[in-house]
Amino acid sequence: QLQLVESGGGLVQPGGSLRLSCAISGFTLHNYVIGWFRQAPGKEREGVSCITSSGVSTNYADSMKGRFTISRDNAKNTVYLQMNSLKPEDTATYYCAADVFCSSDYVRMDYWGKGTLVTVSS
């Protein structure tokens, strides 16, 4: 059974860092792209970043470029999202998703984790 489990969220002060993990089981990571999405209260889910099986990454929003970095470890079947210089507006539930192709449109991703909450506050 295909499963994605996010971890690493929590409370962090503005300017701080967090590394989120997405542990994948039930399928071979090599065959899929993995995307990170986030959803703030009252807002639509938005694409953060995506990484292909060969390690090519795409960041979807200018507000996160230079601060968020996606990476993957195929041997560990895990994808990471390193988040630096966090801002209060980064507060959201962060989800990882899998599919054959990357997309910033969440409706195009077939497999989802349950999310991990990131709160940026002093």
Structural notes for this entry:
This protein has 122 residues and is an all-beta fold. It contains no helices and 11 strands. The protein has strands at residues 3-7, 10-12, 18-25, 33-39, 46-51, 57-59, 68-73, 78-83, 92-99, 111-112, 116-120. Strands 2, 4, 5, 6, 9, 10 and 11 form a 7-stranded mixed sheet that branches. It has a 4-stranded antiparallel sheet with strand order 1-3-8-7, with no helix packed on it. A hairpin with a 5-residue loop joins strand 5 (46-51) and strand 6 (57-59). The relative contact order is 0.31. The mean pLDDT is 94.
Topology:
Layout: E1 3-7, E2 10-12, E3 18-25, E4 33-39, E5 46-51, E6 57-59, E7 68-73, E8 78-83, E9 92-99, E10 111-112, E11 116-120
Parallel strand pairs: 2-11
Antiparallel strand pairs: 1-3, 3-8, 4-5, 4-9, 5-6, 7-8, 9-10, 9-11
Q: Assess the beta-strand content as a share of residues.
A: over 45%
| Helix content class | under 10%
Q: What assembly state would you assign to the polypeptide chains in this entry?
A: single chain
Give the C-alpha Rg.
13 Å
Structural class comes to mainly beta
Uncertain spans:
none
Question: Which outline best applies?
Answer: globular
Number of strand segments: 11
Q: How widely separated are the two ends?
A: 40 Å
- Tally of contiguous helical segments: 0
The helix/strand order is EEEEEEEEEEE
